[in-house]
Amino acid sequence: MLTEIFSELFPLLSTASPQSLEWMLNVATEHEYPEGRAVLMEDSWGNAVYFVVTGWVKVRRTAGDNYRALAILGRGDFFGEMAILDESPRSTDVIALSPVKLLSISRNCFIQILFKDPQLHHRMLQMMVRRLRHVNMRLQMRSSPPAVKLAYTLVTIADTYGQESNKGKEIFHVDYQDLADVTEIGVDETSKIMEKLNEKGWIDIDANKQVVHLVNLKQLMNLAGRL
């Protein structure tokens, strides 16, 4: 993978120096996982940061005897940074939702790069603040109607990972239980709202290809309060 492509694919690395990018590519390890495979397990010690080259994963946390999805991540995102920065066991699992290809960089190498490249260090802080703002927004929306919250989740996934298509932004067809967990609404509500949005023509669900097209992104953004 060329350094230019590496930088364009991962927003975190957009400000990294050419030397940092080349060094990261040299020390990175490639991984491929099938759908349903655990990439990282809760309570394991953080020894690397991971970058999603292709595919989709979910971040989940144990809730009693069950699991609860916390976030959906796609191409261009990264995970595992919290455990390597505070040198503690991971607090969440990461599970492949589809076949995924990842790159990992060991903790020691990544920490060295952050110290050597102040622009990358600053970009890392920006990305973590952005994630915190997203969490704050979700907290503010807890009292919003379920349809508003679900529209916000769909628009956010599309903004971050959506691919352009002739039917609008294309995203992964996330399992309704996971989508409900991330949105913090009931799974029955999620199913009914998705069916309603599909009937209205705002989205197009292709279960066979495991994709959802956001046909009327403007209406969804309006519903989510993003306009």
TrEMBL record:
Annotated SMART domains: cNMP
Domain Cyclic nucleotide-binding: 12-131
InterPro entries reported for this sequence: cNMP-bd_dom, cNMP-bd_dom_sf, Env_Response_Regulators, RmlC-like_jellyroll, WH-like_DNA-bd_sf, WH_DNA-bd_sf
Protein name as annotated: Transcriptional regulator
SUPFAM superfamilies per record: cAMP-binding domain-like, Winged helix' DNA-binding domain
Organism: Brunnivagina elsteri CCALA 953
Gene Ontology CC terms: cytosol
One GO MF term attached to the UniProt entry: DNA-binding transcription factor activity
